[in-house]
Amino acid sequence: MRPAVARCNVCSDPDVRDPETAVVRSNVRAFRGEQFPVWRCKTCLSIHAADEVDLARYYENYPFHVGKLGAMVIWCFDNMLRRLRRAGLRKGHRILDYGCGNGIFVEYLRRRGYANAFGYDAYAPPHDDPALLDLKYDCIVSQDVIEHVYDPVDLLRVFARLTAPSAMVAIGTPNAEAIDLARPDDFIHTLHQPYHVCILSKRALLASGESLGWRLERYYAKQYSNLLVPGLNQRFFLLYMRCFDDAIDVVFEGAPFTWRMLSPRMLLMAFFGWFFSRELDVMAVFRAPADTVALPARESGVENRGQV
After folding, report:
1. Could you tell me if 217 and 241 lie in one domain?
2. Which domain holds residue 262?
3. Count of domains forming the chain
């Protein structure tokens, strides 16, 4: 492992004296006994892992890589697809799901008639074909990925290189501004240690996209899987996991029943939790320029917050 970085690698602010810090336990069952330090940049409010770990070890049996295309997942993906359609997605477009996991969103898109949908994930064979990164795409979808890399700004530059003229780039990610590091146990699923190594703040995400010449097409304050469907919302999920061992693994283990699910609070959140959801997981849909432009060099300083 290594000590905390010397500067914020989102806004390049070198002033990391006395940052806000916390120690967070893992929300994955296999590693729930391990704790990880994090710190927040005072300038852009993004949250960073303080130590570098062997991520390959933690991804070896990653719960998110075993998801299946069941009815609840399809309802969530329907909402994602509605967002992309509103931004102009068409069936003839070439789509890349970057960080696709086991590829179920790509499978879903192809079932819906999007034959040119592809998935890339460096940690998930057989979706790790680097040849996919030599093509241009009309739509890049990156859901819950950017927070998994140490240099999110560099990843955005990769997306810029992969975009065709006027392509859309849809990025879903946790919002560091909504995380209270004074109460880390209340935010273990958003902090998701040790996997979330750099969580952007909303302001840093929007500023970084705009610095690439991307225009913000749409912004969503709720995650695509946060629905008005009873039992499919952020607040209910959080309570549901606490009915067991509060590990994210619970979400992928079917729907085991416990009498605690019939408590007044659980029933309230099952039906009305959508209205109480916080801006913890957001999505920004950007539009790339119609013409190819040279990417600006990264700069440092407060005035260049989120610059790439």
Report:
1. no
2. 227-276
3. 2
Query: Is residue 179 domain-shared with residue 244, that is, in the same domain?
Result: no
Kindly state whether residues 130 and 255 are assigned to the same domain: no
pLDDT for res 101? 87
The reported pLDDT for the residue numbered 275 is 93
Question: pTM above the 0.85 mark?
Answer: yes
Write out the chain in H/E/C secondary structure. Answer: CCCCCCCCCCCCCCCCCCCEEEEEECCCHHHCCCEEEEEECCCCCCEEECCCCCHHHHHCCCHHHHCCCCHHHHHHHHHHHHHHHHCCCCCCCCEEEECCCCCHHHHHHHHCCCCCEEEECCCCCCCCCHHHHHCCEEEEEEECCHHHCCCHHHHHHHHHHHEEEEEEEEEEEECHHHCCCCCHHHHHHHHCCCCCCEECCHHHHHHHHHHCCCEEEEEECCCCCCCCCCCCCHHHHHHHHHCCCCCHHHHHCCCCCCHHHHCHHHHHHHHHHHHHCCCCEEEEEEECCCCCCCCCCCCCCHHHCCCC
Mean pLDDT per block of 10 residues along the chain (308 residues) reads: 61 78 95 95 94 87 76 93 97 96 94 97 88 97 95 95 96 97 96 96 96 96 93 90 89 74 89 93 96 55 29
Residue 48: per-residue pLDDT? 95
Residues 204 and 234 in one domain: no
- Do 92 and 62 lie in a common domain? yes
Same domain, 256 and 138: no
The answer to the question of residue 301 being in a domain is no
